[in-house]
């Protein structure tokens, strides 16, 4: 059954879209990521214009993050104070990101920018995560106690704040910067940024793993909502129909994913996520390097 | 002298008047609804004439359907630092968003190059270009690429010998519009030709537009983008909350 998308102005198979939403939902339930880094490139492959894919992806993330964060609120694994500090940076970053996005759209380079961002960030994050989880598995086999590293340069900065839920007393500058950079990426890549923020929160801010996912989801809701609004008012590229089908698939998938996730070990989960990230990165990188079959591209001004 | 010339011209034009198109369309509007998956339009008609059918040269029919004209930028990729990037652009002033040509005979027998140029019948003639920057020498390659890409998307199509012509009088053809067509007024033209010369032409219009929910959402997104954005967020929030509440209920009940 085909469905006509009023903003994207293309007709796509509704079951394929629903399945895509569902698949991403499963992953977000399992790993606590929004799944935008998968949805946006997959929408490209389905023939949805990149600008619509990015903007609608942001809208879909709002729904999946809300669905995910509610469970974390119940378990009290959301550091609200940290969430608001991250958010302050995130909103500024999102505005900056949409500005950059529109600037490059005018230059005809937005597609390249989005793809390059994906390759670079998925490559770095996926690689680091993969190495780290492999190490963690070896260490746990040897029976060594994982050591928490502390007191780096991060702890010498001013504006210290106490984050009770995370049990941290650190400067507000690193979280604001983390939020800011994730906000920029959210706007450009149509992602929530969880796959960047989660490692950043663990390794850069030293937050305990159990509050990381909930806090990340909490701030992603607002950053993606803000991004959605900016895209809707400056580019008119948010497609409600597309978002709705993806959301319906996504929220169902997320519940299935959450059930799966609790049965797997943290290291196994991380290694699986890392492999997935690297796979998507590899596919996108290949597309950049291989001579395209069609050298020309049409862009409506 | 001038009067004589005018008279001669009128006489020369007379045979052209002898055959005229009477056109029918299976419909004069196409509605883009939620389940829109393209559309076929049947174009049929007859040749009205007062004289006996002239056998040589044979009568041919050409049907064109042209979507709204829009400007478009054609980018060409080039390898820079190992990766493929958009390097050069040519702006095409106006190209039809959709263009279909159907003929009753092979193209060469249907219309001469001069008549094609005069009436803008073939796809290259329907595209108006080219403000190519000075440094681009091969601007035709960009126009060719535009045609190639749109042909692959099913937006430009040339269907030779797809017009059925019976007894040089009745004709019909079917034009397929893909799901990714844009809105607007579609111009339908029918040309009668003999020996490559146009003897009669007729124009008509088909209205293509979104209706119902599609129309409402599109209009809202353009005219009240903030309200549209808030609506999309409200739907997302409701779906996210609703789903988790629903599944909690299922699990506990």
Describe the structure.
The complex is a heterodimer of chains A (301) and B (253). Chain A is built from ten helices and five strands. Chain A has helices spanning 14-31, 36-45, 50-74, 80-106, 110-142, 173-189, 194-204, 209-234, 240-261, 266-289; strands at 2-5, 10-13, 160-163, 168-171, 296-299. In chain A, the strands form two sheets. A two-stranded antiparallel ribbon of chain A has the order 1-2. A two-stranded antiparallel ribbon of chain A has the order 3-4. In chain A, helix 4 packs across helix 6 (173-189), helix 6 (173-189) packs antiparallel against helix 7 (194-204) and helix 7 (194-204) runs antiparallel to helix 8 (209-234). Chain B is α+β, with helices and mostly antiparallel strands and 253 residues long. In chain B, strand 5 (69-80) and strand 6 (83-96) form a beta hairpin. Chains A and B meet through strand 1, helix 3, helix 5, helix 8 and helix 9 of A and strand 5, strand 6, helix 5, helix 6 and helix 7 of B.
Architecture blueprint of SSEs:
The complex is a heterodimer of chains A (301) and B (253).
Chain A: E1 2-5, E2 10-13, H1 14-31, H2 36-45, H3 50-74, H4 80-106, H5 110-142, E3 160-163, E4 168-171, H6 173-189, H7 194-204, H8 209-234, H9 240-261, H10 266-289, E5 296-299
Antiparallel strand pairs in A: 1-2, 3-4
Chain B: H1 2-18, E1 19-25, E2 29-32, E3 39-49, E4 59-66, E5 69-80, E6 83-96, E7 99-103, H2 107-110, H3 113-119, H4 123-126, H5 139-152, E8 156-159, E9 164-166, E10 170-177, E11 184-194, E12 197-210, H6 212-223, H7 225-252
Parallel strand pairs in B: 2-12, 7-8
Antiparallel strand pairs in B: 1-3, 3-10, 4-7, 4-11, 5-6, 9-10, 11-12
Helix pairs in contact in B: 6-7
Quick structural overview:
The complex is a heterodimer of chains A (301) and B (253). With 301 residues, chain A is mainly alpha-helical. Helices cover 71% and strands 7% of the residues of chain A.
